[in-house]
Amino acid sequence: MDRVKGKVALITGAGTGVGRACMTLFAREGAKVVGVSRTQSNLDETLAEVKAAGGDGVVVAADLSTSAGAEKAVAAALAAYGRIDILVNCAGVGYSWLEKSPGSMGPVDDTTPEKWAEVMAINLDSLFHMCRLTIPQMKTQGGGAIVNVTSISGIQGLPVAHTYTAAKGGAINLTRSIAITYCDDNIRCNCIAPGFIATPMVASVLGMFDDPQTAERLTPMKRPGTPEEMAYACLYLGSDESTYCQGTVLVVDGGTTARQ
User: Fold this and answer.
1) Catalytic residue from among 81, 95, 164, 182
2) pLDDT digit of tens for each residue in the chain (260 aa)?
3) Domains and CATH numbers, the chain
4) Which keywords, in A-to-Z order, does the entry hold (predicted)?
5) 164 assigned to active site
6) With a threshold of 0.90, does the pTM exceed it?
7) Is residue 243 a contact partner of residue 134, using CB atoms and an 8 Å limit?
């Protein structure tokens, strides 16, 4: 308990999945949490979970693919608590985005410039916007921790979802670049690289684990990870337990990449 007691954590993608799990876990561990997502109803559910866990938090609906949305999120955090000690960038879309945006998760020769820009804006530009606005605040405070949720798809290729893999690869290298740039400001920047995680983002493909042979091929643990398992990894990198981690890519994938 109290692993981030007294800290303020700004968590994006807080409406569902890993972001929601981070909100609840960080609140249980003593942080004041600010959750950001595009959908107010999802945020309301997340905040109810935070309150039920005895936590202190607020939520704000904003589109982080735009600079204006990120400005709204950061302003809300500062208005509520006056500082930002931890930034967890969970916002993004995955393969299920196909349902809302056909053509967004295909190979490069089947992706329009508009779909490329759309996914990049959500999965990479949002991270840039949030870091650009939060780092000056952390400098003023004397430090902070940034945790970016990326993907093993940013390390290895996929036969589809080329925009997604490019965005996640960019997020990993941006993490490393921020890390080596802001060391002297006492700002740490690290990321986790999840594998298959049981979230709405990949709900449409999780049925693959129902077949034992396919499940074994996907990961040695033969199951998807949980949002809570990812949240614990984010908690470690956001807390003072990881003060010698800088530019770290923490792979949390049940062994998927270990045998490649």
Assistant:
1) 164
2) 799 999 999 999 999 999 999 999 999 999 999 999 999 999 999 999 999 999 999 999 999 999 999 999 999 999 999 999 999 999 999 989 999 999 999 999 999 999 999 999 999 999 999 999 999 999 999 999 999 999 999 999 999 999 999 999 999 999 999 999 999 999 999 999 999 999 987 777 788 899 999 999 889 999 999 999 999 999 999 999 999 999 999 999 999 999 87
3) 8-252 (3.40.50.720)
4) Oxidoreductase
5) yes
6) yes
7) no
